[in-house]
């Protein structure tokens, strides 16, 4: 009589599924990581703190090139008009900014002439990033009172600073990543990794146990 081998794939199946899903998502959107966790409320109400946003490369087909809120027939994205992008200012604190493209500017342009006066804190002569030192974009958070370039959040944003643009948001799923990053900052990557591996193993074991019970019940 032959005995059936125990199924040892149960505990690792969830981890494998996550890896496969991440690889497929990367192949689709062309950027890594393929999502960002929103850590502030600057894009509310379209995107709230704790949401997880799937992003794509800025020029990735079939979503086309970048569009600003001022462009004719600009697409609707996350509760507003124009693309929402992830950009990082070199030499800053390293934290990416997740804001909307207001309009494109050319090098040497006094961009305040085309700006919404309600989103400006000063005239061009009093802004460090005006006239525009190079081609790029003026940006803003939907919930903020000023353009990023008027509030001192960022200079004019050139294409090379933009890591990706948003496709859609999943409410509250980003809290997982926010929590992991907070744990890494407080306890270190190694300790956090050990805890996460333990949790993944426990979840996989419980899932395999439940699945085994379901299979046994279906055979009766």
Q: Give the DSSP E fraction (strand runs of 2 or more residues).
A: 15-25%
Which architecture of the largest domain would the CATH scheme give at its second level? Ribbon
- Described by the principal axes of the CA atoms, the overall outline is globular
First-residue to last-residue Cα separation: 21 Å
What are the low-pLDDT stretches, counting only 5+ consecutive residues below 50? 14-21, 25-30, 189-210
Rounded to an integer in angstroms, the radius of gyration calculated over CA atoms is 23 Å
Tally of separate helices: 4
- In the CATH hierarchy, the third-tier topology of the largest domain is known as Umud Fragment, subunit A
Subcellular location: Membrane
Main location: membrane
Organism: Halorubrum tropicale
InterPro entries: LexA/Signal_pep-like_sf (IPR036286), Peptidase_S26 (IPR019533), Peptidase_S26B (IPR001733)
């Amino acid at each position: 009589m032959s005995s059936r081998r125990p199924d040892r794939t149960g505990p690792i199946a969830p981890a494998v599924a996550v890896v496969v899903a991440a690889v497929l998502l990367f192949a689709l959107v062309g950027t890594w990581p393929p999502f960002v966790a929103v850590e502030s409320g600057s894009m509310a109400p379209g995107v709230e703190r704790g949401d997880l946003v799937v992003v794509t490369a800025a020029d990735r087909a079939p979503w086309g090139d970048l569009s600003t809120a001022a462009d004719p027939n600009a697409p609707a994205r996350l509760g507003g008009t124009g693309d929402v992008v992830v950009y990082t200012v070199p030499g800053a604190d390293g934290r990416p900014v997740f804001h909307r493209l207001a309009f494109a500017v050319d090098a040497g342009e006094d961009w305040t002439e085309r700006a919404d006066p309600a989103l400006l804190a000063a005239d061009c002569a009093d802004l460090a990033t005006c006239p525009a030192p190079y081609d790029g974009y003026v940006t803003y958070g939907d919930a903020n009172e000023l353009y990023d370039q008027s509030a001192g959040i960022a200079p004019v944003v050139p294409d090379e600073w933009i890591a990706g643009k948003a496709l859609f948001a999943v409410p509250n799923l980003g809290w997982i990543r926010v929590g992991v990053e907070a744990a890494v900052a407080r306890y270190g990557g190694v300790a956090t990794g050990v805890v996460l591996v333990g949790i993944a193993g426990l979840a996989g074991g419980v899932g395999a146990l439940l699945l085994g019970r379901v299979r046994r019940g279906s055979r009766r």
